[in-house]
Amino acid sequence: MTADAFLFWFLAALTIISALSVILMTNPIYSALSLAMTMVSVAAIFVTLQAYFLAGVQIIVYAGAVMVLFVMVLMLFDLKHELQAFTRGRFSGAFKIASIGSLAGLLVGAMYSARINSALTESSIAANATSKGAITPLAEELFLRNVFGFEALGVLLLVIAVGTVALSRSKGGTHARH
Amino acid sequence: MTSMGTTGFEITVNLIKTVLVFLMMVQAVPILVWLERRGSAFIQNRFGPNRVGPLGLLQLLADAVKFLTKEDFAPEKGNRFMFYAAPVFALIPAAIAYMAIPMSVPLKLETATFLIQGFEINVGIVFVLGISSLAAYTILMAGWGSGSKFSLMGAMRASAQIISYELALGLSIVGVILMYGTFNFNEMILQQQGPLSFNAFGYTVATAALPNWGIFYQPVGMILFFAATFAESNRLPFDLAEGEAELVAGFHTEYGGFKMLMFFIGEYGHMMIASGLMATFFFGGYGIPYVSIQDVQNFGMNLFGSEIAANVFNTVVHFLCYNIKFGLFLWIFIWVRWTLPRFRYDQLMDLGWKTMLPWALVNTMVTAAVMFVTTYFMF
After folding, report:
1. What is the predicted ipTM?
2. Hey, of B3, B99, B126, which one would you mutate to test binding to chain A, going by the most A CBs within 10 A of its CB?
3. Number of folded domains in chain A?
């Protein structure tokens, strides 16, 4: 086995194990930490594919900022209470199975359509993304060719942020009496 | 990342190098602790530890023995796995991130070339910032795993602070990235060689009096970056996480002995990353002001008369120069700690979100505008 193959199988196993433990762990904090581990190992797979910029951004944004917030908020909860609400009940079990099923369907569908649409793998992005971690092609795609989509996504995120604040405020925010 | 080499010799050396950089980092900690204690004593007009060995230098050896022989204690109500995992994880981000910082000119030995850094990554800045931001997890794990209110409060404060200041930290170096046009540390350092010179409005402005360092182009960025790194490494005046008047010792309240020392090493590791990045971004990295790399090489050739000896000499001299800058910033870290009082929590958040973030944004926009105007308009 070559070094590349070993790295791939090792990282793939790590990713799958940590991704599985996200849903199999009963303690939400372990789940959140496993998700962070999944992010890091996906970033490591990006490194083996020589997409260094993508790996760095993956770690900064997901593992370094988003998941830290998740873990922080989870630690503030009364976990004993939440643990029971999270693991028990027929409804939550059915919900879990349904969501796993739909996600699996989505993945299989995506793979199937990607197999048909093999032109996608030969596009300029895929070719450029692996060229020694160069970021100029990525910037050209984002800021020249797809600038409107990129900006629209930014506006969408802003709308989501404002909406979240507005919703939580209308219900009394952190000072709400239940 | 360059590959680990083609010949067995190169691969072996590169593997040893990664271990060596880590050991270097760990070994620098006792010296820094000594400097911190003696420095604080000097600033506060005391003696500090001066009994064990010359100038108290062996105090740290005695401390290490004490730490190793202490009782291995874990709180009953805590989470044992998290409690033991946190100090181990505290070392990893600091060590891996520091390896990406170049410390000297590459050493050329006949056919092989060795970089004086753990590994080279083309997007070095993104890598270092990303990896060092993972340190927030170790603090959270320690705080939660201890099963103590003080620890949890300290961990919450620390992680909220790290996330807040990461934005200012990231934005403060966008100006630097725009200016150098690269994410690669080595290319940045090579661009800072020689005397100060830049092109503006079709003219070339040059002066031999100043080196071509980033600080002369990005003074605001430098101040913001340095301030944000203090917050990132949880040092005074930003050490709200362990405000001893309120929280005993913050997230490491329950830790003792060597476990606590490992958090210490992690914190000093983040100081070292910050100092290394300061030198690389704003102070020419390993470059020597007024002297080019070729000058040192020629001097070595005259001195020793052989190519390999001159190469080794060149690398060693630049390594020493890097370490002078590196040590200076570490000293400033210690100096500030014993000079400034701690912020209040609302002051900390105000400074991060309402002062540093807007200034960093303005710095980015002004840099971009100035670069555009001076490049595309001619007079």
Report:
1. 0.78
2. B126
3. 1
